[in-house]
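Title: Prediction job returns without error message
Component: structure pipeline
Severity: low
Priority: P3
Assignee: unassigned

Description:
Job completed but the reporter wants confirmation the result is attached to the right record. Sequence as submitted:
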Amino acid sequence: MFSKKIDIRVYYEDTDSGGVVYYANYFKFTERCRTEFLRHLGISQRKIYDDSSIKFLVHSVSMNYINPSYLDDLLTVETKIDKLKNASIEFNQNIYKTQNGQNIDIIKSKCKIVAVDNISKVRAIPSIVVKKIMEAQ
């Protein structure tokens, strides 16, 4: 199954006063990776919206915190599709860091996004998006 990985360096702005990554920033990191996942498949969310007036919204998300990460850590965010349905995509996402040749899990997350129109009514995912995802699987 296709996955997308991006590396993110932890900056001072990502941390609390103790130098630990503030928990809400992991949501930003996983959002970036979902966007890059689609971009890697040739899917521009801006183009999808311009062509079909469809945008993707987060329906639900869960995140399990396993280990902390700290200022200056280099994190890897990995995104995979778990389920593709008519109007939604469910992603599995992990963040880890490599230390002494071993991966240390930071978080494990699940996120469901839905396709909606201009008035936030759930709609089918555009066929070009489904096609590109299916080709990558």
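Comment from assignee: result matches the submitted record. The first strand starts at residue 3 and ends at 9.
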